[in-house]
Amino acid sequence: MGDDGSLLPEDQLLADALPLEDERDELEDPEFDIKCLLQEAEDDVDPGHSSSVKELDTDADKLKKKTAEDRMQAFHLRQNLSALDKMHEEQELFIEKMRGELRACRQRRDLIHKQQEAVAAEIATEEEAGNMATVGRLQAVSRRLFAELENERDLQSRTEAVLKESENTMWHIEIQEGRLEAFRTADREEVEATGRRLQVRAAEQLCREQEALGKVERNRLLRIRKSLHTQKELGLRHQKLLEDARKNHKVAVWFLKASLGRIREQEKKEEMECHEYMRRRMDAVVALKGSISANRDTLRKFQAWDRAKAELAEQRVQAEKKAILAQGRDAFRHLVHQRRHQELEAQKRAFEEEQKLRKQEIVSRILKEEAEEEKRKKQHPPTSARHRPTLRDKTWNYISDFCKEKTTVPTNTSTLDYEAAAGPGPSRLLQVVSSELIQGDPGASSEEETLAEPEISGLWNEDYKPYQVPKEDVDRKPVGGTKMDKDILERTVERLRSRVVHKQVVWGREFQGRPFNSKPELLHFQDFDIGKVYKKKITLVNTTYTINYCKLVGVEGHLRDFIHVDFDPPGPLSAGMSCEVLVTFKPMINKDLEGNISFLAQTGEFSVPLKCSTKKCSLSLDKELIDFGSYVVGETTSRTITLTNVGGLGTTFKFLPASEPCEMDDSQSALKLSSLLTYEDKSLYDKAATSFSEQQLEGTESSQADMQSRKELEKLDKEQEEEQPAEPERLTTVIPPSEEQTEITLGEVTEGEIGPFSSIKVPIIFTPVVPGDVQARFKVTFKNPQCPTLHFRVVGVAIDVPVWVPKPSVDLKICMYDRLYQDSVLVHTRSKAALRLKFEVCKELRAHLELLPETGYIQAQSSYSVQLKFLPRHSLPEDAGRYFDKETRVLEAPMTIWVADQNKPVGFTVHAIVTTSDLELSPSEVDFGYCTIYEAIRTEISLHNHSLLPQEFGFVRLPKFVDVQPNDGFGTILPLETLQFCVIFQPTEAKEHRFQLTCKSEINRCFKLSCRAVGVHPPLELSHYQIKFAATALYDTSVATVYVINSHLSMSSRNHSKPRIGSEDASPMGPTSFEFLLPPDSPITISPSVGTVWPGKRCLVQVAFRPVLPEKLIRQEALPLLNKEMETKSFRKDMAPQRKDRHRLSFSVLRAQNRDKLFKVSVPHVLEMRKRELKPSPHNTLYLELWCPTVAPSVVVTSHKGKTIFNFGDVAVGHRSIKKISIQNVSPEDLALDFSLLNPNGPFVLLNHSSLLRAGGTQVLVLSFSPHESILAQETLDIITKRGTLTLTLLGTGVASMITCSIEGSVLNMGYVIAGESVSSGFKLQNNSLLPIKFSMHLDSLSSTRGRGQQQLPQFLSSPSQRTEVVGTQNLNGQSVFGVAPIKGVMDPGKAQDFTVTFSPDHESLYFSDRLQVVLFEKKISHQILLKGAACQHMMFVEGGDPLDVPVESLTAIPVFDPRHREEAEELRPILVTLDYIQFDTDTPAPPATRELQVGCIRTTQPSPKKTVEFSIDSVASLQHKGFSIEPSRGSVERGQTKTISISWVPPTDFDPDHPLMVSALLQLRGDVKETYKVIFVAQVLTGP
Questions:
Q1: Mean pLDDT throughout 413-424?
Q2: How far is CA 992 from CA 305, 622, 907, in A?
């Protein structure tokens, strides 16, 4: 029980009151902590708290501000109330559940009681029957029921107990709620009081807002009064400004009139000059016409030759196809390959022609600029000072020197310059036209000869000297550079922008098309006035798939002075979003302008077209023929013709009969005549004289419009002449003037002024006098000379019959067979009485034409409509007879209307062109042949429309494995048109396919095409069937991977389809081999090209594309340049010597040619590669299609003959080889270089690094190869730029220094030597490598680093395992005890070198040692040889035993004994011999422990009385008694020999293993002196290692 007033948390209460999980599980008593909860509630409602609640009840209206303690108490009370309510609900639910469980338990008990009674009855029955087995079974059932009954009783008792306790808990909760009821009531009243207070506050707030609103309204009225006062003042000011403007306008009008007078005089002068100019043009055009006619004859000959060649080629193809079929090969594939080859050749020829045209264009530009320069020089005469030639002069001199040999007609240079500057006269124009036509002739000479011929004769003579520009004119370049400089700049900017473009790929789809759409699509400023400012907005909408960017590039150069674009880049735009662009146009000249506003998006550049139109007169008539129809003589009717001006400039018009002459000056007639000639032959004239077209073809728009009007009028005259062939030919009118005035006249309005964007209606009156056809011609003239004269014709018929047909000719246009066409024929009457009409069709056409009704009555002065039905049959050509023309398919059917009481019938004619609706598919049958299920076969079919009408069609009900393109086989075919379609067959399973393609027209006619094919399931498949390489620069490599897969795992067709060809047997399961066949001379490498794939496996195949420049092309292009260089040197001695390196010249060819060739390739070259089995089947062939675009490299290698593979050759390990590689930037821009990372642990190193390579600059790369081991090294160095990657392949072989030494074990023991003497020994080193090896020999005792090691602790103070000192005792005289010769040298490959080691000790010691190191190339230690030796004072020595002293001698020799006792001291020299007897098993005898001592005699050159050394060991018997065996115990040793004394020990029987055995014996040596050694034997038994 807690003291705080808060209740338990909800989760704890729920955990305490767990419900029963299962009715058959044992019920657990829910341990409610209700007592704690009630105690907390009692603490909350103690007398103090209850008194506070009573205060709330009594003083509810006098609420005061509560303290923090009161608010906390109220919060706890509310929390307790909510917890009690929740517990109350939960207890009610729990009690209900327990009661339900109790009822269920009682029902189960009753059921068990019943079952027990039934089982007891059955037991009694079975006992009576004597069935003991059944009785036993029933007794077991009874026992089970009894156990269940007991379980149910226990469950019932526990449930009742839990229910009782829950009811008690429920009572306690209700009691607690009753105690807190007073607080609940007080809390509810407090909430109501708070609501009332909020309402009062809201009312007060509303009053304050209303007062503020009234104040705002008063301020608004005050502002309105102030604005009215301000407007009045502005009105007065505006009125004053208007008065001033009127005064200024009057003054301006006076000055304008004076200016217009001067302008008119200037215009008259210009018209005279124009007249003279047009006369010259007419002469030029007449000469041009003669040339055109001659060219037409030549063209006809060429066309005839082409047709003959085409027929021969077709015959040759058919013969070749038959020959291939006879050989059993695939003719279709062969023809496809041949056609592709021809297309490539055609593209190549087209490219060469384009190069020729570009070269001609460059020469023409140079000539034009030279003429302009000469003209400028004449305006500014040069001074006498000479200056250095400009860049253009050098270029011109270079071209003239190159072509000087081939110049044919020399001409004076000054005359030529004068003609170029003066402009094209008639004879000059003919010369230019003829020269251009000769150069464009396809039968001309080769490229070199064409370039060698000058475009203007005499230009390249030797006596021609270019004009030297004076100093003051050197810097006088036109603003923005010359035209050539601008073109070069535009191309460079275009290339730079093209690199900014990125492809946009979303969900595997690449966006192609215009990135932004503009609204409007055309920005048009119409009818502008000079000096005004016009503004328009355009909206750019993002039409790409995702986010895009937009950047303003600018407007074209000729629009920059007039157009200003305000565009704030919006940043990233999502798909469908838009941005606005404000375009401001301020015209300064009265001239039409056209151009584009260019923008740059992330996916490409786009532009918005811009057009600015001046005010013009655009006049037209709404009709050119007015047909009054048939009118009775004496009647008067009128029609109106509308003259419309859609331009922004008005003019004066006048309607006149065509017979009246109009005032026209000579200049206008000459202008129209010249316009006529120019319009007819404009295209050819532009082609022949392109350099003069801009000056000679201005102002032809109005003349062309006039010509069009005249042509239309001549067409109407021609039709009239055909209708009336007997009538004489007339130019302007068909009737006399007197009849024009009497029958067809003009209305009152015949002249006046028409304003801009207005129209005027002029009445035409027809008053027939004499029955018959009447026609008249009129014309409309204008004061504006740029407006052409308009013509129109008026016709009418004067009749005297009461019934007539307004449309005497019913034109049904073009009709198809078996289709119904209807029209209504209207009949009019003038009669004042009703008339009976009978409609009659000629008998030949009654099966096709019908008039309904056949008889009718027309009322007085009214009209009658009759229905015309036309249903042409296929028998119409035979039935119609003379009414149908079979060639033109035109039907002219006369119809007759018989009028009662009238002898003359009324006739009209039905015109129709009858055509068929047939569509023809060719060929009639398509055989696709064999096709694998992984590929598709495409074949072309043609659809021909025999009809004269366009028809909609579509290929319907196509199988799933067939597709028809384009437009999925739907479209519209024009009359007599033939469309080509691609039928794509892609089988899904291996079987024989036979199907039909159905083409249905819009009139539901079906045309079928039979097709057959064989589906093939090959045993192998490819992961990709098409590879598109990225644009790869020359000598660069692009690699792609593809897998060859064998998915044939089982012969069962349930798992997967089995490989087969058509309906043949399935292919056997097993490993399948393949082979890739490459086209010849292709830059493709496949690895591996042949292989075998096991079932369920796949093979990785790498496809590499590395384009290279053919050597043949390099030589072909380099030869003319070399010839030109030689010619230039022969004629110009002062020129600097040209480059002599032929390979660098070839790279200049590469830059000159491939910069155009490779950058202009828009369609990549397609290579096909096929894969087939090693047992080839023509049907199990798969095709791998490769798209290989090639671009010119930005960086090329100019050294090493342009090769990108650099072999350092064989380099010894530890050495370095250096190569210098020159690279050059052949692109027109500076490039930032980035280099790929070489292997940091590899042998290749780039020694210098450059981050920028200027345009045309050269950089030398220094590479080193330093192998660290014997290896064949290969690495690639990528030089990365933004325009491509140049890959350098580095090769090198590290050759290890293979040296073998004749010394085994790397230890050379020099043996014993008498102190003061020396001994020599030799060894060999063999060079087994392929390189000469430089060696040197080093002794550690002579090393400079040995002194640092001597400062450390002596080696004998450390443990033996830590001793690393190899330099032992040295001579006391300071000289090395060991010597070697030779010290250094070079060993040739495969040779051996002899070395001699000399041992020269100067005092006695047993520890002379040193280390000899063989160092190769002063870097690598090849061998280390340990040199050992010992020195004695006398000729005998004993070797062996355990060491008893340290291996380091003192630097000072301190004698231990006096020299008089030397012999006694020598006899006491100790030798320790330790023998360890190892015994693992006591039952098995172990081998004896053995040791050896060496007794030797040194070979010496000193004279000695004895030649041998004798030795003897005493006490041998005592040693044998203790288990020692010594063989031999005495003997002699010759000089230079040694003898071994073997010592063995076996423990005796009385040996104690715990106490080692130690005995001694004397070893005496007798030579030149006598020496005695005390040999101490220590023996012990070891039972383990």
A1: 37
A2: 46, 66, 65
